[in-house]
Amino acid sequence: MTDSFATLLVEEDDRGVVCCTFNRPEVRNALNLEMVREVRRLLEQLATRDDVRALIFTGAGGQAFVSGADIAELRERGRAEALQRINNSLFREIEQFPVPTIAAVRGWALGGGCELAMACDLRVAGESARFGQPEVRLGIIPGAGATYRLPRLVGMGRARELIFTGRIIDASEALAIGLVNYVVPDDEVLAKARALAEEIAEASPLAVRFAKMALNATAEMSTDAALTLETLMQAVLFEDEEKYRRMTAFLERRRARKS
What pLDDT was estimated at residue 127? Predict the structure, then answer.
């Protein structure tokens, strides 16, 4: 079990699915320094556990996933705080978390909230979800990953438009441009995220971890290096007992259907 937190609600089930709820609904779950520190502490605790299969992030209250960074805090930060990469480094930890992460988004996901969702592997949006990078309207730029994660998801042209204008888009447009994987009614968002997490949990844990590592690495290496990494991972998995067990079960089921 994990520790208790002031800004997070954490639940886990017996299938290894952990749900982290950002719990500052009075400020639309704005991401302040305390929340950053608590999410980082949660990630550190979960990363060492072999029984965790997927991690879901969602927001309390229904009005927001994370409405953005806490503007009151952000206004007082100077260049020294910017160079500390407070949110940037946290979202990198989420991106590199060993098992798949899912953002279950209802309501606002703006600025740092949108960047947090993009740092996750999958995104499920409710019909009320709204995404955007409005930082230029506040005199700054997206500083926690949008300038490189958003182009990877939606293409450079669309990313330039959204970042230069600060325009906020709805869930249907987010789906159309590839920013989210699914759009469902608001009251089904968490259920859909859990269903995805449980489907992931049914697969080989080591294979899923390797697949995530390989997918993350491809953005930062040559094709030849990516192929080498993939080959080495496959070589390890070919000798894994889980592979033998799962393939044997598959062949037995196929023989049973034919008989």
Answer: 98
Cβ contacts of 83 within 8 Å, gap of 6 or more: none
- d(CA 36, CA 96) in angstroms, rounded, equals 16
**202 Cβ contact list (under 8 Å, min separation 6):** none
Under 8 Å CB-to-CB from 96, ≥6 apart: which residues? 216
Q: pLDDT under 70 in the chain at which residues? A: 1-2, 69-85
Active site residue 239: no
In the numeric block, which tokens belong to residue 128?
Answer: 């009320």
User: In terms of DSSP bridges, do strands 17-22 and 64-66 run parallel, antiparallel, or are they unpaired?
Assistant: unpaired
Which residues lie below 8 Å from residue 34, measured CB to CB, with a gap of 6+? Answer: 6, 7
Which one, of 13, 35, 73, 27, lies nearest residue 193 by Cα?
A: 13
pLDDT in tens, 113-123: 999 999 999 99
**Per-residue confidence (pLDDT) for residue 184, from 0 to 100:** 98
Q: Which of 158, 110, 106 is CA-nearest to residue 134?
A: 110
Which one is catalytic: 11, 12, 135, 202?
135
Of residues 11, 34, 81, 115, which has the active-site annotation? Answer: 115
**Quick check: is 188 catalytic?**
no
Could you tell me the two tokens for 109? 């996901």
CA 35/CA 6 separation, integer angstroms: 8
Residue whose tokens read 């700054």: 140
